[in-house]
Amino acid sequence: MSRTVYVNGDYLPEDEAKVSIFDRSFLMADGVYEVTSVLEGKLIDFDGHLARLERSLAELDMQKPEAFDDLLDIHRELVRRNDLVDGMIYLQVSRGSAGDRDFVFPDPDEVKPTLVLFTQSKPGLADSPAAKTGIKIISIEDIRWGRRDIKTVQLLYPSMGKMMAKKAGCDDAWMVKDGFVTEGTSNNAYIVKNGKIITRHLSNDILHGITRAAVLRFAREAQMEVEERSFTLDEAKEADEGFVTSASAFVLPVVEIDGTTLGDGKPGPVARRLREIYLDESLKSAI
Ligand code: PDD
Predict the structure, then answer these.
(1) Can you give the residue ranges of every domain in the chain?
(2) Atom of ligand 1 nearest to the CA of 213
(3) How many whole angstroms from 234 Cα to the centroid of ligand 1?
(4) Separation of CA 208 and ligand 1 centre (Å)
(5) Which residues participate in catalysis according to the annotation?
(6) What are the pocket residues of ligand 1 if the criterion is a CB atom closer than 6 Å to any ligand atom?
(7) Ligand 1 center from residue 190 Cα (angstroms)
(8) Superfamily of domain 129-285
(9) pLDDT tens for the 287 residues of the chain, in order
(10) Per the confidence metrics, is the pTM higher than 0.70?
């Protein structure tokens, strides 16, 4: 079935939606994005994603799209028009098209940002088999740029990381900088040792995950101990448990790192409990 997508004010069948070949997201990766999960037809953590989008735009000196204040309605309209029950909404804003290729940013009075949104249907998203078995990861060097806190569409290296993992018979990769784990290719990374949840502190080195913020809040509310600090790959391999968080994956247990089994090789109790709490609580506040 053809999806209805949104491009700069219009709802269109996906094969009629068009963006210029001079669009700066296409030529320069000059764009930012958000992925919001949809469960039971409702948006999860929408306010957080909107706030981070606003921040990404500001950090890159990119204009807000005209429809910025209507984004909730646009998300809901796409859910409605596509009968979306479980899945995601992808949103991308680019600096637009100046009608040619030029490294210099175009004048924002003349060139308006491009806004694109589309849905991805994933029936049973919250019941993924990976949540029951856990995932296996490899480690790779983090060679990305220094502003990983901005959610840009420069995803070539994360994409290569997923392929390296696939080639190694694994599900994903954790990236390592100077011996310390930064994050997963498309998620934040955590370990658990003696009941304590350890995850890298916020800085320009990682994306400030919206799921991360919610999960850490729920963990603290449930009296779990949380430590936000860097951890090494060796420490991770000796941990009792590991897990990742993101919109779409929620909380996903990690059971193996570079061939080393964590704990008994099954999803650990902390990750399982956090997944349950996160899904329960975020469904309650879904809009
Ligand atoms: N990725 N770190 C990176 C590098 C990410 O790409 C993501 C999200 C996260 C988790 O952020 P959040 O909890 O806000 O989804 C962390 C999305 C899901 C993606 O690219 O599809």
Answers:
(1) 4-123, 129-285
(2) 13
(3) 24
(4) 8
(5) 151
(6) 35, 183, 186-188, 207, 209-212, 245-248
(7) 14
(8) D-amino Acid Aminotransferase, subunit A, domain 2 (3.20.10.10)
(9) 699 999 999 999 999 999 999 999 999 999 999 999 999 999 999 999 999 999 999 999 999 999 999 999 999 999 999 999 999 999 999 999 999 999 999 999 999 999 999 999 999 999 999 999 999 999 999 999 999 999 999 999 999 999 999 999 999 999 999 999 999 999 999 999 999 999 999 999 999 999 999 999 999 999 999 999 999 999 999 999 999 999 999 999 999 999 999 999 999 999 999 999 999 999 999 99
(10) yes
**The tokens of 106 are what?**
């175009």
Sequence length of the chain is 287
| SS (HEC) of 101-146 | CCCCCCCCCCCCCEEEEEEEECCCHHHCHHHHHCEEEEEEECCCCC
- Reply yes or no on domain 4-123 having CATH 3.30.470.10: yes
Q: Which atom of ligand 1 lies at the shortest distance from residue 48's CA?
A: 14
